[in-house]
């Protein structure tokens, strides 16, 4: 949700801010803007509706050594130049990521209405800082922050303090670094990884003063806070398209490597091992029940996890939508394990759900991709997935690494709780180790998938059907298609169709049917015949060598002959490619679907 970057240093700020914004564009892309300052303290603003390339066109020649930039995902107020950030009130320019919940009250209490041009909550903060400014940015920010309710990451320029960027955050992420090329601050480090791999996370409610020669931090009591530097284990080439037309296709192709990186260090002598993650053995003992909490794709990874965990452990496993879990009264005890799943580690609902879960149990575990993110830091234990940076808004490789972690966790819990013998667990892990090659082979069917999506390009609706593990996948397949191709897609447990939904099947409507689970295969085939008989365009994914029966399906995608538990990795790659080629076939940019943003830090 909104990307922010700030730079001050010896180099020209304009290209650094613009290039940084381009890398952050996945966080929001309805409008963009920057504010910059020269040595004379004159604050200049450029902003426009549209993408970073549109902003570049209006400010590429601007000279500055200090600047802040913003790419917006609208929350308060429509998409317009006036609502785009930065907001300048008096001699103060501000950019914001987050939501200020009490902005109405602040306008009334501090009589700010006359200072406002936009409909945004963010401009209210700029106006408030301007109103309360006492010549000292730190004391003013401290005062203003104490008046705010909500989430925020702010970068602020004060015209009378040239060359300095002031920042503060609550919940919304912000990282910073100082290196030989100057000082940087951003929503995530992809914005400045061209310059350094070292960075630190800005602690909440810490006032940050970013100067050319260094970064100072103090807490709200004025005490100095030292940065804790981290280093990423990927570099700029991982965040580039590398010859692929879109990040999404690149990330689909990266899945074999991402899974290998994630599982290999956790398999020792053929068995799951979480010693390196610092998770003690007793974490896996005495588990009464498991709750998985996440949003969107991460939650669907949890659905796969649930199916496996429940099958092998025979204990209750529930999957909760984080935004619902927060407002229910969870049934948890001290022996409950809560697994929180998040690529970004910053999704606000997931973070708040974790905070709630911690009131009930000391066994919270997060599966997170971004090192040092809020969810990773706040959970009792964290296991990092190693997908590398995921830039496309639609998640692909993050999902498969998350699911691969659930396979490892299932194996570990089954072993510790003696639900499976060591030999059975070794066999299970052996199959998991084959997954990267299996996905690699499935990627070879790309041209076929592109061809069979041709008949989907004009579809208004589509169904994804499956049973058991395949049903959980259908949900993720439907989400992928919806979010990037804008075709209305729904997932159904195949047996449930005839209880109402089958009424919606019409001539030519795409139905993607997954039939990989042997114990429900024949039932699944009957369900597929039912939709085919009503005119659906059926794409069937199954392990059958060949299907020649036209009354069953129009297209058949052959899945590999491996144990049923593992076919999901092959199927999901096909579903991801179906979504990708449908979107591209419709002339859409799959990396930046309308209305979406990658990191959802608003509630
Ligand atoms: C869909 C997608 C989203 C995210 C969800 C959670 O393709 O990417 O549904 O999965 O917003 O995000 P994280 O995993 O960062 O918590």
Associated small molecules: fructose -6-phosphate
Computed CA radius of gyration, to the nearest angstrom: 25 Å
Secondary structure tally: strands: 26
Question: Largest sheet, if any?
Answer: 8 strands, antiparallel
Amount of beta strand: 15-25%
Report the uncertain regions.
none
Shape: globular
- Strand order in the sheet with the most strands: 3-2-4-1-10-9-11-14
Question: What is the straight-line distance between the termini?
Answer: 11 Å
Share of helix among residues? Answer: 25-40%
Nearest-integer average pLDDT: 93
Number of helical elements: 18
- Derived from helix and strand composition plus strand pairing, the structural class reads alpha/beta
Describe the structure.
Strand 9 (175-179) and strand 10 (182-186) form a beta hairpin. With 603 residues, the protein is α/β, with parallel strands linked by helices. It starts with a strand and ends in an 18-residue tail after the last helix. Helix 16 runs parallel beside helix 18 (567-585). The chain is globular. Helix content is 33%, strand content 24%. The mean pLDDT is 93. Bound molecules: fructose -6-phosphate. Residues 295-298, 342-344, 347, 350, 394-395, 479, 483, 599-600 line the site of fructose -6-phosphate (F6R).
Q: What does this entry show, briefly?
A:
The protein has 603 residues and is α/β, with parallel strands linked by helices.
List keywords for this structure.
single chain; 603 residues; alpha/beta; eight-stranded antiparallel sheet; six-stranded antiparallel sheet; 18 helices; 26 strands; 33% helix; binds fructose -6-phosphate
